[in-house]
Amino acid sequence: xxxxxxxxxxxxxxxxxxxxxxxxxxxxxxxxxxxxxxxxxxxxxxxxxxxxxxxxxxxxxxxxxxxxxxxxxxxxxxxxxxxxxxxxxxxxxxxxxxxxxxxxxxxxxxxxxxxxxxxxxxxxxxxxxxxxxxxxxxxxxxxxxxxxxxxxxxxxxxxxxxxxxxxxxxxxxxxxxxxxxxxxxxxxxxx
Length: 191
Description:
Blueprint: E1 11-17, H1 23-39, E2 44-54, E3 59-69, H2 75-86, E4 91-95, E5 102-104, E6 108-115, H3 121-126, H4 129-139, E7 144-151, E8 155-162, H5 165-178, E9 186-189
Antiparallel strand pairs: 1-3, 1-4, 2-3, 4-5, 6-8, 6-9, 7-8
């Protein structure tokens, strides 16, 4: 009879993003999500998280985020906000100790791998990965963004997520074809 007057109980929301985010970039995403939720008056806090690392590839494979949400009825709204921020295809969520994660996320991912070893020295001396980062950011504005990067032993990776892998690739391809540092680069769909 008095259940409707009872304060809602918080729930734990476990999220696995199929996003290649360095831990610092995962923390930035978590902070932005919590800040937005608090601006809406929603009780949401980060209570855990981690990075799933693929040792064989030497890259991040996924990012885990654990949230405490003040009430289960807010979960759809939190997922919608996170989906707009960064939720690649293949991402999942679950509540509490559920063993059956549910899929969410619609974004596609593009990894651009710059060759750091096989180009002439003058190319490395006269160009920079920072210029590639800035130009790709400009070119995919409105349809995607660079969410993380990683320096690998023989490559530098830029990880972009957006509405469409093909649209992002089409926008950056003329630049990749013309900028010397992008010779021998690889473009891979990652979500």
